[in-house]
Specification:
Chain lengths: 298, 135
């Protein structure tokens, strides 16, 4: 049957607020020292009010650092032939790539055509386009030929060193958001994190939202839920389940939640009973949490 | 004796604007800049504006990279600039202008020349081989 309302997209305000809440705001991690030239440390003497002001400003800056990169569908391959001149067959040995260097055109609308040795004049593929635009209009942090650690074989070594965040930052600098390599690298990173339950690596970074969106669309939320309950992040767990219900409104727990208007721990229990695969683990984690709450309050 | 006035201020008397290739690069490594210049200037000398470039050697992906600033090219063509023959051929290959007739003629002459080169190789080969087994 048809959905009653269109499926929520990544860019919807409600979705973005939920993801932003789940990302957390660990100032120590966001402003962790980046490798730069050595400078002696800078000490300041401040009153309480000035310290509060400085913290507030730091939070504002951290919010800009945590803006989530876009999640788009893969772009359609370009397959357009402009001219076919059979007479040119056999004259050239290599193909010619012509780029339009007019300054005021956006890169997406630039004309980049390729004349093959067999005389066919066709539009360039997305990879050729990206390379030519990087040659003539270089962007900082991007290389003409993508580095070798983005290949599938080499990504495993990088993930073993727990450097998912660095790889994802370099991926955002190197590729366009709708290119095949960007989506492939991101999905590999999320799969690896989900397999080894290393969710904390991305918490308080701008990649956390994308990871949660990926897991929720594929219904692989169990590991993340367990991790959240173990770290006593109940509000995050409830927002995760709300997001799940927004994306999959036809599932049973969504209907029960809407009928009963459940909140908090009850919502988690209903979700666990109906949707999750690892029920046992989540029940255990919930029990441990409730015991901890009881002992701490008593 | 030095000429009065700076060499940099040397102007051209007469002449017209042409769009042509200026050669640069190093030994055994050519590189062309597509340039709008006065026709009386040196080939690699002072030009009015650079409109693009062409790398005649194929790169790691087997492509000859060429860039053309079509907006400025259209401006100079509108001002009445002329094109040199290699520039016309390149623009014909790019699709900006129709294919140059000499490109088509050259393409048609090439297989004929290859055939003619192969026949003399075959003929002297036959001619030198025959006297051997002959007598």
């Amino acid at each position: 049957g048809k959905a009653a309302q269109p499926k929520p997209a990544f860019t919807d305000e409600a979705v973005q607020t939920l993801l932003y809440k789940m990302t957390g705001l660990n100032l120590h991690k966001v402003f962790r020292p980046v490798k730069k030239a050595l400078k002696p440390p800078h000490y300041k003497l401040m009153t309480e009010a000035q310290l509060e002001e400085a913290t507030r400003k730091a939070i504002e800056e951290a919010k800009t650092k945590l803006i989530m990169p876009p999640v788009l569908n893969e772009r359609e391959p370009i397959d357009d032939v402009l001219a076919e001149d059979k007479v040119l067959e056999g004259t050239e040995s290599a193909k010619y790539v012509f780029t339009d260097l007019s300054y005021s055109i956006p890169h997406r609308e630039r004309f980049i055509v390729v004349r093959e040795p067999n005389g066919v004049l066709r539009k360039a593929t997305w990879e050729e386009r990206d390379r030519m635009i990087q040659i003539f209009f270089p962007k900082e942090g991007r290389r003409v030929i993508p580095p070798t650690f983005f290949k599938d074989e080499n990504l495993g070594t990088v993930f073993q060193q727990d450097r998912h965040e660095d790889v994802l930052n370099m991926c955002i600098a190197q590729f366009e958001p709708d290119s095949r390599d960007y989506i492939r690298v991101h999905h590999r990173a999320y799969e690896d994190i989900e397999k080894h339950a290393k969710y904390d690596l991305l918490r308080s970074t701008r990649h956390f939202g994308g990871m949660v969106w990926y897991l929720v669309s594929r219904k692989k939320t169990d590991g993340l839920l367990i991790d959240m309950i173990n770290r006593d992040l109940l509000e995050d767990a409830t927002s995760l389940i709300t997001l799940y219900h927004m994306l999959h409104p036809e599932c049973q727990s969504a209907k029960e939640a809407k009928e009963g208007k459940l909140q908090g721990v009850d919502l988690i229990k209903v979700f666990v009973k109906t949707e999750s695969q690892r029920e046992g683990y989540i029940q255990l984690a919930l029990q441990a949490y409730e015991e901890a709450m009881a002992t701490s309050s008593a | 004796a030095f000429s009065a006035g700076s060499r940099l201020l040397r102007t051209c008397r007469g002449g017209h604007v042409v769009i042509r290739f200026a050669l640069g690069g190093c030994t055994n490594r050519p590189f062309f800049r597509i340039v709008a210049a006065n026709s009386r200037r040196a080939r690699d000398g002072k030009y009015l504006e650079q409109l693009g470039c062409l790398d005649p050697l194929p790169n790691a992906y087997g492509e000859k990279v060429a860039g053309l600033n079509l907006e400025r090219l259209r401006y100079w063509l509108g001002c009445g600039a002329q094109l040199s023959r290699p520039a016309e051929k390149l623009l014909g290959l790019a699709g900006f202008l129709p294919l140059h007739p000499m490109t088509v003629t050259g393409a048609e002459r090439l297989p004929r020349r290859r055939q003619r080169e192969q026949q003399p190789e075959a003929a002297p080969a036959d001619g030198s081989a025959e006297p051997g087994p002959g007598p």
